[in-house]
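Re: Re: ligand-bound prediction request (bumping)

Still looking for help on this. To restate: I need the protein modeled with EPZ bound, output as structure tokens. Inputs repeated here so nobody has to scroll up.
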Amino acid sequence: MDKFVITGGNPLKGEIRIGGAKNAAVAIIPAVILAGDVCRLENLPNISDVSVLAKILQELGATVTRISKSTLEIDPRPINTYIARHELVKNMRASYYLYGALLGRFNKARVPMPGGCFFGIRPIDLHLKGFEALGATTKIVENGMVSLDAEKLVGNHIYLDIVSVGATINIMLAAVRAEGVTVIENAAREPHIVDLANFLNSMGADIMGAGTGVIKIRGVKDLHGTTYSIIPDQIEAGTYMAAAAATGGDVMITNVTPKHLESITARLRQMGVTIEEFDDRLRVTRTEPLKACNIKTMPHPGFPTDMQPQAAALLAVAKGISIVTEGVWDNRFQYCDELRKMGASVSVDGKIAVFQGVDKLMGAPVRATDLRAGAAMIIAALMADGVTEIEQIFHIERGYEDIVEKLRGAGAQIRRVSDEPTRGANLMSS
Ligand code: EPZ
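Reply:
Sorry for the wait, this slipped through. Here it is.
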């Protein structure tokens, strides 16, 4: 079992460069299926979610050429099936964007139900409601495949009673080539929604209002190829901001969009962290003890749920009582059991966790229960006394490119210990 071994106590110093946004990349790669020509995607993060999705498109028939570590050229024209059977699809949550992309291209799609997640069920009822509103029939067929069929897709007015990133994205993918106008009300407003809309518009789509709660999509007949650079990753940036704060360091975090980080910056400042903003970078320092504060996660522009575990790791050592309310997912506090192994004092009741700040965390053997929980364990380990071993690091490497190299470059004592020959081979090469 591969693991990270971290010796805490080193303040992070120097510069950390942020990569492309995972949650934009996992929407934009399937969106290429809708293009009528080659698409060149730049600033992609070098993570397994990207290489797995690229492999899935290859299995569908697309020609995928890796130009560099962060650039792919994808020609979707040879794709000749709307059935995504490949084993990889079942294991990857974000493969559910294949529904909207294949439906949008072929008026049909057959894709396995998405894998579960480690913090509660991940329903897709709003996705299916959106497809039905556009004229598709949806059913679950043999061995958990979702089957979508439409004579033709016709624009409609769709109200999402829960703000859903995935449903907003999937409806956009299905609607861009539908007949007429689609309006999505109560749409998600995350930066990666805007990035997908900008990508689709660069292919000739006609989407307005992305980033607001109302998105209007005027269907177009065809979409051409494009060259597009993915936005920087808001959550990767927030994670390293928290790591710099945790260790009392002084880190310049580069290749960021400060506007995307406003809610994270505000909370960290409330905890006593100093953050200087520049055009495309932030300087994060902390000299005072961390202060307790309350956090409630909300859809964008609220404090992002994907930063909840990382912020909680800081609150575990912040002076006083902090209340963390998870406003998006049913059960996203499993990592608290792991923090307790390091000496944290936290009690969890449903969607609320109450932290009583302790002076210090102690190194211990812990595990990553999901992607962001794993990031929280790294942050805790970086500031703990002694050595921490983190298992199940595949969760972390799914979404954080070169995390060991980036942290070592800033002075962290972290190494990756593999019990087997390195398995990080690029899926593209196999
Ligand atoms: C996306 O998940 C992200 N994943 C998640 O990030 C993120 O936590 C989430 O958005 C919220 O920002 C990707 O972008 C690949 P939702 P998604 O649909 O789209 C309920 C990470 O760490 N809901 O916005 O699956 C749902 O149960 C990951 O990068 C329905 O009830 O999230 C949840 O309570 C973890 N029915 C709420 O809506 C539906 O049909 C928000 O979910 C869909 C969602």
